């Protein structure tokens, strides 16, 4: 058996024999509860919450239960390789850390701790525009981490270009442009507390350190923080953009360009036609639209539409190795993990994120073997039965 990823299981049992337990639960369903106990209520509400009645978030999870994995036996799966090919290079596993804003809410070291976990595990970190630590701080703290940059496309050209230049200068390899958050969704957990982290200056590190943003402020942010927040909310996004806007980014970003937040086959076709190198099928973890289609169900339709023309990535609802196998079998090349790693961060900083990632990768490795496969690329829908 491969010891690289499934070996985490063996390591846990050996430590157990010597009287040591894992740092916290290996059960993903208990992870969220454990994190809630150590987090400030408003921070937990912001991270765990979703749009409206949270029906989309529930649907994301339920969709995984509608696909059953079929075990296979006697297929020599003793040697396995979780690596995948992406944009002409290899990633050690089909897993990425999704862009999650304001990670300082979960742990004082925020994105720095997440980036160090990325460095340690080889799992790339997609750094959010609205991060608690800046593009430069994260790169300096984890120089060997594979880093991608997620853009919330501001309504200002100078600021946009400045963010892109900073990402290039600090060796962020891939640009992920998030398209499904051009408006802030109706989120009752936050509304009931009147709590939005950005209004309290959480998650604005990339703006407050940006010369183009600072230039747009009437007074320095240090003396007029409320004015800086106001300017930020005016610039944050632009709901008037269309597919005709994408070539601007293609022109100014020379690395791989990924469009995130695609659920409709028509949008997927438009993304490919606009010159994107990949798309992320995602409904933002159910945080944007309520009463929405499960991201996993959208994945099938999108892969049918463009799976032969582009690379499809997936997020929203991934909690376990089995979930990952299901998404890969339905045509995703890789998956992004959202809330679970943030809970790991809250529970144990860098080590907590590493524990969550190693657990998920061990499960993925074992599930791959038990479905009779040696590599992620070998998976296809025949491993699934709709239940
Ligand atoms: C607290 C929180 C903040 C997020 N912030 C961002 C962000 O800044 N940029 C972005 O593209 N997506 C953001 N997302 C969405 C994630 O990238 C991802 O799509 C989602 O978390 C995946 O679903 P999951 O949490 O069920 O794994 C955020 C998600 C959460 C939970």
TrEMBL record:
Keywords, in A-Z order: Flavoprotein, FMN, Oxidoreductase
List of residues binding FMN: 99-101, 128, 150, 178, 282, 315-319, 338-339
Cofactor: FMN
One function term, GO molecular function aspect: oxidoreductase activity, acting on CH-OH group of donors
Binding annotation for glyoxylate: 46, 152, 187, 260, 284, 287
Pfam families, alphabetized: FMN_dh (PF01070)
Residues annotated as catalytic: 284
Gene3D superfamilies hit by this protein: Aldolase class I
Family indicated by similarity: Belongs to the FMN-dependent alpha-hydroxy acid dehydrogenase family.
Protein name, per record: Alpha-hydroxy-acid oxidizing enzyme
Organism: Streptomyces tsukubensis (strain DSM 42081 / NBRC 108919 / NRRL 18488 / 9993)
